């Protein structure tokens, strides 16, 4: 066990956990922030995507002791009122079916658009192919990203 | 208006006891409710008046509608309340939706599966809304002293034109709650619908995109412990012994023990699973800690011997023998070939197939196979349980809460009335979450550790404790006469351990000489419902085969099918044909028109297929191209006939999802077994379709009619496999007989 000071969504949090604990479980179990989802645990599905200093990373393989003072953003902190352009585009296109993968999809898309506000189809493919949607909402994800990139 | 008898016995009008005096406020969980109009905040009323089990109206006119069915992405939480709101004649903007708990006394058929939700509840939902509207009108008529018949409604307002009186529903909610339930109500004509048939956004949309804790895995309760289980590494094995000495010393671990999922004399129901009934529970403070401790656990497993048990089923219970052994895919293939070579069990025979095949000018024969598939619902298996001396509370993702209650009641010896089953939104189901062994496991663990427990399976164990789609095998034969008319058809279908045969489906009824045979191969691998059970294999196989037959007959594949439907319509063979040939032809004609079939193929190669299952009709045209030496799906055009489309945009989303899922399963889906263990257990080994492999465009069209709505989650799934295979054939010149198709390419 060790103490870690984490900066998450603009707030300081302290946790006392094993240093090898993935950030995913620190968020979900210790800090009770359930928006970041567990899908595979091995960086293959993207459900657990968060931002570390603005970059999309898989929290299931990001160990808590590797975070340091990097700024963590989760789906809960992407916007104050759920009005980030990506979230709005997701609602406009009514993307979700079961919805389980969508926080991860949204975090992935938001990181892409931050770095590249007008991505080409190929660039979107490249960025989004690590995020699985078992319900098959890929065509809507694409439309929503296009809408968000134009807003 | 049409008049309808109230369609819900008494049960949905049983009110919360406290309400008898009228005008009492209900306990209402605002966090669990959601507002359809996400932009405009609804004002929560000071008082709720319960009109019936599904409906509460606030003094300010806000309406709360219960969604009775479990939601796993099929959109029932939006579409079913829409139907009630329609007949209630309320403004959708003033509606909030709540997920109903499991309560057999108040709600009917709280089950999600078989694409049945809307079909089975359509009339009941309509009369529920209409009855409430009627009660409001009667209340207003009394107060205004005018005849009920003169009171009209619109968008949540009551109006009497003669006197110029007008009031919102909220004003009469209290009085309406006192009005006796009418025995007959007026229903709207479909042409007058203002909510049904107009796209409404997912009522959970905002909560989903902001990461609210909607799912079972998100459940969090005071004092809750986390548990996981060690399950046998392979089918055919059971627990021998375990040593937890080391694992118990791991940080955060509270207890480790073995337990049985059923009592010895228990008779299983159709959703109980017979594999892996003795497990080791690891209980601790957090998910990561219990998963790590599991790695340190020393468990010995041993092969079991053949055993018999009484299995529940849709057609009553039966004695089943479960064979011992550690099965492998290679053995399954050998056994299926052997079984297919022997005479099968004749399920249907029309005319004289033997004779017809002898006389045929041409006989076409092909065999199709498909492997086991895993459900891979995105949210891994989990359930919360809190078992105390006199009460059981379980919360989690379940397609079949009624069975959760029954199995737990039998296992713990606690009566059903003391078991509270609450349903969460599900991160996918696809059939898997009808089998809720994990709810019982969670309850047993909670009882043992005397604390609330959330049971969490790893992704790997979620797969390994599979209730798989069976492996299937079918041989078709078709006989053509000298004029290329199909005069004989033979289907012989089997699988491990179940046959996918649907003997009364097309082309039965369209061929004079028809023979359908079934066979099975025993297995100890657990199988169960998977999106469009049975149909998800036999449908595509039949449609791939008909493409071959059409080609051999020198006919256009759509015209070839339409000719057969014409025959089935005008001169059907046999009486038990379970499809409507005109509606079947209808979706093919619609997809032909919308895809511009035969006109603009410009470099793309196209395939078509149609299928009927779960009461709806679906047809797809798929366009494929070669991209960097690999086939890629460009475009899909779909046509559906599922009767009235309640929520069109959500319906389109469902069809798009089925198309993507079907393409993924057809191209990549495969679970193989080695010595009883699945060779794939996570997304690194199981190929799930990804963003870059989905079609670039999917166009969905619906046949417009006023038939009561039927299922949508399953029907578009089977035919997409075949439309894809038929398109690939045009692209590569190879027929695709064995799934997954990408293996055939390599
Ligand atoms: S849970 Fe992290 S990528 Fe799947
Ligand atoms: S919406 Fe269900 S997994 Fe993506």
UniProtKB/TrEMBL annotation, chain A:
<dbReference type="Pfam" id="PF00111">
    <property type="entry name" value="Fer2"/>
</dbReference>
<dbReference type="InterPro" id="IPR001041">
    <property type="entry name" value="2Fe-2S_ferredoxin-type"/>
</dbReference>
<dbReference type="Pfam" id="PF01799">
    <property type="entry name" value="Fer2_2"/>
</dbReference>
<keyword id="KW-0479">Metal-binding</keyword>
<dbReference type="InterPro" id="IPR006058">
    <property type="entry name" value="2Fe2S_fd_BS"/>
</dbReference>
<keyword id="KW-0408">Iron</keyword>
<feature type="domain" description="2Fe-2S ferredoxin-type">
    <location>
        <begin position="2"/>
        <end position="78"/>
    </location>
</feature>
<dbReference type="GO" id="GO:0016491">
    <property type="term" value="F:oxidoreductase activity"/>
</dbReference>
<protein>
    <submittedName>
        <fullName>(2Fe-2S)-binding protein</fullName>
    </submittedName>
</protein>
<keyword id="KW-0560">Oxidoreductase</keyword>
<keyword id="KW-0411">Iron-sulfur</keyword>
<dbReference type="GO" id="GO:0051537">
    <property type="term" value="F:2 iron, 2 sulfur cluster binding"/>
</dbReference>
<dbReference type="InterPro" id="IPR036010">
    <property type="entry name" value="2Fe-2S_ferredoxin-like_sf"/>
</dbReference>
<keyword id="KW-0001">2Fe-2S</keyword>
<dbReference type="InterPro" id="IPR002888">
    <property type="entry name" value="2Fe-2S-bd"/>
</dbReference>
<dbReference type="InterPro" id="IPR051452">
    <property type="entry name" value="Diverse_Oxidoreductases"/>
</dbReference>
<dbReference type="InterPro" id="IPR012675">
    <property type="entry name" value="Beta-grasp_dom_sf"/>
</dbReference>
<dbReference type="GO" id="GO:0046872">
    <property type="term" value="F:metal ion binding"/>
</dbReference>
<dbReference type="InterPro" id="IPR036884">
    <property type="entry name" value="2Fe-2S-bd_dom_sf"/>
</dbReference>
Automatic annotation (TrEMBL), chain B:
<dbReference type="InterPro" id="IPR008274">
    <property type="entry name" value="AldOxase/xan_DH_MoCoBD1"/>
</dbReference>
<dbReference type="InterPro" id="IPR000674">
    <property type="entry name" value="Ald_Oxase/Xan_DH_a/b"/>
</dbReference>
<dbReference type="InterPro" id="IPR012368">
    <property type="entry name" value="OxRdtase_Mopterin-bd_su_IorB"/>
</dbReference>
<dbReference type="Pfam" id="PF02738">
    <property type="entry name" value="MoCoBD_1"/>
</dbReference>
<feature type="domain" description="Aldehyde oxidase/xanthine dehydrogenase a/b hammerhead">
    <location>
        <begin position="210"/>
        <end position="305"/>
    </location>
</feature>
<dbReference type="InterPro" id="IPR037165">
    <property type="entry name" value="AldOxase/xan_DH_Mopterin-bd_sf"/>
</dbReference>
<dbReference type="GO" id="GO:0016491">
    <property type="term" value="F:oxidoreductase activity"/>
</dbReference>
<dbReference type="InterPro" id="IPR052516">
    <property type="entry name" value="N-heterocyclic_Hydroxylase"/>
</dbReference>
<dbReference type="Pfam" id="PF20256">
    <property type="entry name" value="MoCoBD_2"/>
</dbReference>
<protein>
    <submittedName>
        <fullName>Isoquinoline 1-oxidoreductase</fullName>
    </submittedName>
</protein>
<dbReference type="InterPro" id="IPR046867">
    <property type="entry name" value="AldOxase/xan_DH_MoCoBD2"/>
</dbReference>
